[in-house]
Amino acid sequence: MAAKISVLRWLLRAGAALAAAFAGWILLGRARSAGGRHAVAERLSRDPAVIEAAASYSREKGLPLAAALRLVEEYTREITPAPDPRLYFQLAIPLAGMVVRFLYGRWLHSAGKENVPEPGGEAGVIFVMNHRSNLDYVVLGHLIGGGTALSFAAGEWARFWPLGPLVRAMGSFFVRRGSGDALYRRVLERFVQTGLEGSFTPVVFIEGGLSRDGRLREPKTGFLDYVLRRFDPSGDRNLLFVPVAINHDWVLEDGSLRAPDEPNPSGVESVLSTSLYILRALRLARHGPERLGNVAVKLGSPVSAREWTASRSIDFRVLEPVVRLRWIREFATDLMRTIGRQMPVVPVPVVAAVLLEASGEVLSRKEITARAWSQVSELEERGAWISFDQEEAVEAALRLLLRRGLVITDGDHYRAAPEGGKLLRFYAASISHLSPEEG
């Protein structure tokens, strides 16, 4: 009962703070934000590449050029954020801290924060991240803190009121996934390119969506192509790509993830399904000292576009599209490999791998701990970052798996639950590429 009261109080405080700040933003900041969006729209409407794309679109569709330009304005309003620094730094970042502390407590680990470039430097900065959970946004925002305002690419599901204005005010921009509209893609491309010339700091989920089977997905190249196709390797402004790897002991949406060969759910279905799992996880977060277990983030050394292109003697601007895309794929693959190499090792994937290797055999707590640490030692020898260093972490992982019904216990002995195999494989897969067999 005390835990439920504590959760309720926390939710009420968070809700009150959010409502008050949002109301203040609406009353005091809407005009300034709208002005900023209007300025972006004006700049893009005069952009030669956008005008050319609009003219081509009008000829192709048999529309007046003015109608195509109105469509450009519509797309610009849809994509462009309306950032309010007060809302981001005074609400979003503190609220992210509250959420992270509530869900993970002392089980949050990070490394490589020194690799984050100083804001306002002589290079555009892009964070390139794998995608495990919708909480990845919150965790990374909390870790970066008040030093840099990050801009996430939000899906169409977040466009609608009241979430849309709030997300837009926090600096996120909106992207239509898989749009075949050439004019829309050109507006998005020029928005990204011109933004990187200023203070725009995007976070890109290079896999294009959540991992469905726990493994890293093949990288998507669309966003990278946008930012690199006009990159001048001899120009004054470089581009730095910060690879970010994140891993969780408990992915809130794991029960709602489709198989890799299944189609994505509709926007409404996805939101409802994910919301149910998140509410369930929030309810269970206070039911054990480990809360939702460990979450760990590692930020790697920035990859310089200038150095990468110089090492291969290429200039993306002059390459034929087919050749350029081949090099973009190689660049994306390099980033994905870097993310994979620095993937944090957290306890649940290790324990899940031990239980799966046992193939239903009953193991004592001592045997599980010994096998887990043997696996950890092998991974450490191969250069993996082990984000935990206490035997308590393995025991906490076992408690978490018990709470989730993925493990069956008889006294001090454990085995994988028959119905838990899918999720155990999901978690073990997150670090399987680091093992000697697959590395």
Molecular structure report:
There is one protein chain. The protein is α/β, with parallel strands linked by helices and 439 residues long. It has two domains: 2-341, no CATH class; 347-432, Arc Repressor Mutant, subunit A. Helix content is 52%, strand content 11%. The protein has 15 helices and eleven strands. It has helices at residues 2-45, 48-61, 65-79, 85-104, 136-144, 163-169, 182-195, 222-228, 267-284, 305-312, 321-341, 347-357, 365-381, 391-403, 421-432; strands at residues 108-111, 123-129, 151-154, 173-174, 202-205, 238-248, 295-299, 303-304, 363-364, 407-410, 413-416. Strands 1, 2, 3, 4, 5, 6, 7 and 8 form an eight-stranded mixed sheet that branches. Helix 1 (2-45) packs antiparallel against helix 4 (85-104), helix 2 (48-61) packs antiparallel against helix 7 and helix 12 (347-357) packs across helix 14 (391-403). The longest helix is centred in the first third of the chain and has 44 residues, at 2-45. The N and C termini lie far apart (47 Å). Mean pLDDT is 84; it is low at 24-33.
Explain briefly what this protein structure is:
The protein has 15 helices and eleven strands. By secondary structure, it is α/β, with parallel strands linked by helices.
Topology diagram in text:
Elements (H helix, E strand, L loop, with lengths): L1 H44 L2 H14 L3 H15 L5 H20 L3 E4 L11 E7 L6 H9 L6 E4 L8 H7 L3 E2 L7 H14 L6 E4 L16 H7 L9 E11 L18 H18 L10 E5 L3 E2 H8 L8 H21 L5 H11 L5 E2 H17 L9 H13 L3 E4 L2 E4 L4 H12 L7
Parallel strand pairs: 1-7, 2-5, 2-6, 3-4, 3-5
Antiparallel strand pairs: 6-7, 6-8, 9-11, 10-11
Helix pairs in contact: 1-3, 1-4, 2-3, 2-7, 3-7, 4-5, 12-13, 12-14, 12-15
